[in-house]
Design brief:
- The protein is α+β, with helices and mostly antiparallel strands and 328 residues long.
- The chain folds into two domains: 12-130, no CATH class; 151-307, no CATH class.
- 36% of the residues lie in helices and 12% in strands.
- The protein is built from eleven helices and eight strands.
- The relative contact order is 0.11.
Length: 328
């Protein structure tokens, strides 16, 4: 689940959809999405996040916006006025009910963590959809966070130091962000050539994550876009890391193939598999920042590094947990 919070627009799927909404002049745009979900046999997690965003746009159209609407939604509402009909609210309510249902993928994901807050937000959305239409009073515009491959974020740690992460692409079947955690914590932020040299190095601590969410953390700054080092531009190996499967975890996906962990270790003995995160469990931005603050790179599927299964042979003794040995 590509979310950094329980809010309707605190996830990548919703913001990607808002980007499409912003470019449309169709008053029916959210309703088209809701009709498709209403007719679907099941709603996946990503589709559920989009459905919630579309329902929020309907609520805003009827004069009951959420507290934080992205600028793209406000632009669309100002151009089109949205859909204020009672039938639009009824459609949105049916989709919301399905997303909250016992068989919902999105509900199941939130039940694993943060479910109480998510359900409270969904209850608030239902109340606003059930309320009678009133004159639209839109909240202040919230800046949109747009990112592209190569963007670098400077993060502020709890100790007042700064750390750096770079967005190097999407990864895995769920399309989560692949975040490169740059080495070191700095009391004085590097600038100019020093920052470029840091980013241009080939050290590759990698984690699944949510780059937009990293930029939303308190004290974070966008520090520009830099070329991704050549060894990191291609597909990176990603491992389904589950304790139930014992030492070595699950299969490794690399270059379009799923390879058993033991076979991958034989084929690529210079790659340390312990960096490979569970594709279904990615860290919230504050969790990943906490791991960075502790000097532990990267987040590998569990909050406690001591719970990680041991690395299987034949990893060389020089292999560092969470590090690609790109120079070997």
């Amino acid at each position: 689940m590509g979310a950094w919070g329980s809010g309707p627009f605190e996830n990548d799927a919703a913001l990607d959809w808002v980007h499409e909404l912003k470019r449309s002049d169709d008053r029916e745009f959210p309703l088209t999405v809701l009709r498709q979900l209403d007719a679907a046999a099941g709603i996946g997690g990503r589709e559920g996040e989009i459905g919630v965003a579309a329902a929020e746009v309907v609520a805003a159209s009827r004069g009951w916006p959420s507290e934080a609407l992205p600028g793209g939604v406000l632009d669309w509402l100002e151009r089109t006025g949205g859909s204020t009909e009672a039938s639009a609210a009824e459609l949105a309510l049916r989709v919301v009910a399905a997303i909250e249902g016992e068989t919902s993928d999105l509900r199941s994901l939130w039940d694993e963590g943060g479910g109480v807050e998510w359900r409270e937000r969904m209850a608030d959305l239902r109340e606003r959809l059930e309320a009678p239409t009133r004159e639209v009073s839109l909240p202040p515009q919230v800046p949109e966070i747009q990112v592209q491959v190569g963007d670098v974020a400077q993060l502020l740690t709890s100790a007042g130091q700064v750390a750096y992460v770079q967005f190097i692409g999407k990864a895995g079947e769920f399309g989560f962000d692949l975040i490169r955690v740059l080495p070191g914590l700095f009391s004085l932020p590097p600038w100019g050539g020093g920052l470029a040299a840091l980013i241009g190095g080939e050290t590759a601590f990698l984690s699944h994550g949510l780059f937009r969410g990293m930029l939303s953390l308190d004290g974070s700054q966008h520090r520009g876009n830099y070329p991704v080092p050549p060894p990191l531009r291609g597909p990176q190996p990603l491992k389904l890391h589950l304790k139930a499967l014992g030492p070595g975890g699950g299969p490794v996906t690399y270059q379009g193939r799923k390879i058993p962990a033991e076979e991958f270790a034989r084929l690529h003995p210079d790659v340390d598999q312990t960096m490979l995160a569970d594709s279904n469990r990615i860290p919230f931005p504050d969790t990943l920042l906490g791991m960075i603050e502790c000097g532990w790179r990267p987040w590998m599927g569990d909050d406690d590094p001591e719970d990680q299964p041991p690395r299987p042979a034949p990893y060389p003794p020089t292999a560092q947990p969470g590090k690609f040995l790109l120079d070997s």
